[in-house]
Write a structure and sequence with these properties.
By secondary structure, this protein is of the alpha+beta class. The chain has 2 helices and 11 strands. It has one domain. Helix content is about 15%, strand content about 25%.
């Protein structure tokens, strides 16, 4: 019985360490599938945002709309469902690839471009895409690849802001907002 408690405590401590780390350090962060940004897509809204479809790879989403939203951090960019999009300091603005790879992508799923550029509501930055290693197109804004934070579970969440001091929301022009929440 004592050994079982010891193993359970060790397993719990290991899980806490894995979940508390963030991309941008040498310890990657695991993501919960239940916390994927596509969970907001179950809304009964009839807007164009509901057409955002979950991709087969890691719960990442094809973005059909980018819009601005008012938050505690100021006016930021979200997808059509109101889920916050982030940039990664280790990416190169205007670069051809993402610096977030491997387990980083589990915690920070890319925002994918669908078959057409997303509709933009209140977003003024330049939208483009970069190729991912698996042949998909990752959406960029102002030259920055866009990502979701797996721990944002509802529209308006900005819990990924300043994670490891390398993850930031963007303003509608595509400029990182480096205010800590």
């Amino acid at each position: 019985m004592m050994r079982a408690r010891s193993l359970t405590a060790t397993a719990l401590a290991s899980a806490v360490l894995v979940l508390s780390a963030g991309c941008g350090s040498s310890t990657p962060e695991a993501a919960s599938p239940a916390a994927s940004p596509s969970s907001a897509a179950s809304s009964t809204s009839t807007s164009a945002a509901t057409s955002e479809a979950t991709s087969a790879a890691g719960g990442a989403t094809e973005v059909t709309e980018l819009k601005s939203a008012s938050t505690s951090l100021g006016t930021i960019v979200t997808d059509g469902n109101g889920m916050t999009l982030y940039m990664f300091d280790k990416d190169t603005k205007g670069g051809p690839t993402s610096a977030c790879t491997g387990e980083c992508l589990a915690a920070w799923p890319p925002a994918f471009m669908g078959s057409a550029a997303p509709m933009m509501t209140g977003v003024t930055g330049t939208v483009a895409s970069i190729d991912t290693p698996d042949g998909k197109k990752q959406l960029t804004l102002g030259g920055w690849p866009l990502y979701y934070w797996a721990k944002d579970t509802k529209p308006g969440d900005v819990t990924g802001q300043a994670v490891k001091d390398v993850w930031w929301v963007l303003d509608p022009a595509g400029t990182p907002i480096k205010t800590k929440s």
